Every structure is written in structure tokens, then in C-alpha cells.
Amino acid sequence: MIDYIVPELKQNPHDWDTWLFYSDLLQGQGNPLGELIALEHRLFFSSGPLVGSDHSALMEAREKARNGVKEDLKKKGVSHVLDWYHGLPRDVDFNGNNEQKSELVKWNPFIRCIGTIQGSYGDFSQLVPGTRRHVDELWNDRLVNPELRDKCFYTADGAIYFMRDGKPYFAFTRERSNPAFKNLNEACKQLQDNVNYTVSEEDLESALADPETELFELSKLNGNNSFFTELSTKNPKLDSLSEDGRRLIHRVYGKDNFDEVMSMLAKRWSITRTYVLNPDYVREHASAGAFGRASWLGSNSFLASDCGINLHYRLRGVVQSEPAGES
Fold first, then answer.
1. What is the C-alpha separation between 76 and 244, in angstroms, rounded?
2. CA dist list (Å): 120 to 40, 117, 126, 135, 246
3. Which of 321, 233, 239 is nearest to 273 (CA)?
4. Are 173 and 221 in contact (CB under 8 A)?
5. Distance in angstroms (rounded) separating the CA atoms of residues 276 and 251
6. d(CA 104, CA 113)
7. Given CB 3.0 to 4.6 Å as the disulfide criterion, which of 53, 98, 140, 228 pairs with 275?
8. pLDDT digit of tens for each residue in the chain (327 aa)?
9. Domain boundary assignment for the chain
10. Cα–chain-centroid distance for residue 106?
11. CA distance linking residue 80 with residue 202, whole number of Å
12. Parallel, antiparallel, or unpaired: how do β-strands 301-306 and 271-275 relate?
């Protein structure tokens, strides 16, 4: 029965009736993940809003159940839970062996064992599509796993620059709409030889049609046409930014965890910057058509304007040769 339900849930992840049936089956097997699913449903999908002591009691129960699962996961080779999915631990940092990993995926078929490899931008080909980490996900990973905070990472975010109605624009995409991944070898060759890689009109329009792509008019990001947005980590004054500037900051650092990320940075850095290309550069080089750049995350700053693809930074995601869980 479970073998039938799991594919159904992967196809229809918002079917809570099936999730609850799955929860009952897991609890019948003595799997603690079943209780986590049930608690998640009661917290967020009950018939009426939970307030006061009821909500606090459920939150406390969920935290206790999560801590128990985390202890189980440590025995299975997991060092950190990075993300939770319908009550289940989904993205995890894994330090065990392949046999443990296979058992882990059998125990929780929705789990994704996120790994770190060192290499060039072209080494994204070694990671399972759909699991390559974006900049906001990497900030969240750093909140959970302090060992990642001083390492530099290429990110899966797409950075497309183009002209429209005489104005320079920046399209900031998720992995699925990053045109570099459609022909990674060719994109890397062009970045190395020409600094920019060509983005076809078809790929540009496809990226712009994706609801997760954020579009920015470059001249509205900063009033002085500079090529970075700077924030004080101790006192990040978002109100001083334009609306486009605030959208960019929330996309880069994550809106839900923004305060926590700033607090983490403030312990070591006074400022943080997000770099994009100068509007004048885009006017000059996008006149013949859209082009793209690579993106990477440093210790305290993010660049959506990079062409240094062979610097042997790190990349994160599920490694191709390993069990991927849900991708």
C-alpha cells in the first residue's frame, strides 16, 4: 500500500487526505514520521484556527517529535535537517555511507541527501536537477550548518540581462528557468571565452513566463546606477531601498528567514552586498540580444554578475550517483 501512495503524493503533494492516510500507515508500522505528518496537519490544516494554549501545545509536541526524529537521523548518518516537507525531514546534510543512504531513502522516500562537491560551474552537471541549491536556500543551510558559512558556492540561480523598450532589465530565475542549464557546456565555454553567454529569445520568454522569476528594471535597484545593493547587517534599513531593491533583497536572503540571516552575518560582518551588472554595461552589451552570467555566494555577499566559472568553489545538491529521494 505504501509503495502505491508515495508516487501519488509526489504527483499531488497538496492532497492532505492522502497524507493523513499515509500518516496512519506509518504510525501502524511504528514509524515516528507518521506522528510528524499528523501534527503538521493539525497545526496548519485544522478546520478552525489554533490559538493560545492549543497552538502552543501542538508546537511543543511537534518540536518534541522532531527532536526524536533528529536523534534517529544521526544514527543514520545525517548531521543536520535543512528543511521540512509536510512534516517530514526533506533536505538533510548527510555524512554516512551509501548503504546508510539507501536505507534512509527507504525509510523516508521523500528525503533528499544534500551533498557538497568542489569544482567549477560546469560541475552542476554532477548534481540531480531539481536539487541544485539557490542562494536563499544556501543562506538557510548556513543557518542550520555553521560549517558552511565560510565557504563560497556557485548557485543554481539564473541571471539574465536584456533590453526592453529602451530600458535595461535583470531577470533572476530559479534553476528550472536558468538558460545556462539547457546547454551547460556551451554556456561555460561562452562565459570563459566571451564573459557573457547568449540567451535565445525563446529561453528569455520562457524564463519571464515562469511565476518564480523575479524581474527588475536595473535603474530602479539603486538611485545612483551603482552595481551593488549594500545593507548594514546590524541595522538593515529596507525602507531606504526602492520597491525593486527590497524584492531583490528578499529573493537573495529569503523573506521568511531574513532577520535570522542578518543576525548570523552581523556576528562577523558589518555589511553585506548583492551585485548585479551596471545598467550602462547592459545597455551596451544587450543591444544585440539577451545574455546571461553565472552566480555565486561568498561569505557575506552574492554576485549575480559573475563570469569566473573555473574558480573551484563548491556546489550543493543531490549528487547524481547517489540515491536522490524526491527530485
1. 44
2. 39, 10, 11, 17, 31
3. 233
4. no
5. 13
6. 9
7. 228
8. 778 899 999 999 989 899 999 999 999 999 999 999 999 998 887 655 555 677 888 999 999 999 999 999 999 999 999 999 999 999 999 988 888 988 999 999 999 999 999 999 999 999 999 999 999 999 999 999 999 999 999 999 999 999 999 999 999 999 999 999 999 999 999 999 999 999 999 999 999 999 999 999 998 886 444 478 899 999 998 988 889 999 999 999 999 999 999 999 999 999 999 999 999 999 999 999 999 999 999 999 999 998 888 888 999 999 987 544 444
9. 2-121, 153-317
10. 24
11. 40
12. parallel
Which amino acid does the sequence have at 208?
L
Cβ atoms of 153 and 315 closer than 8 Å: yes
Determine the Cα–Cα distance for residues 295 and 105; give it in Å rounded to an integer: 31
End-to-end CA distance of the chain: 22
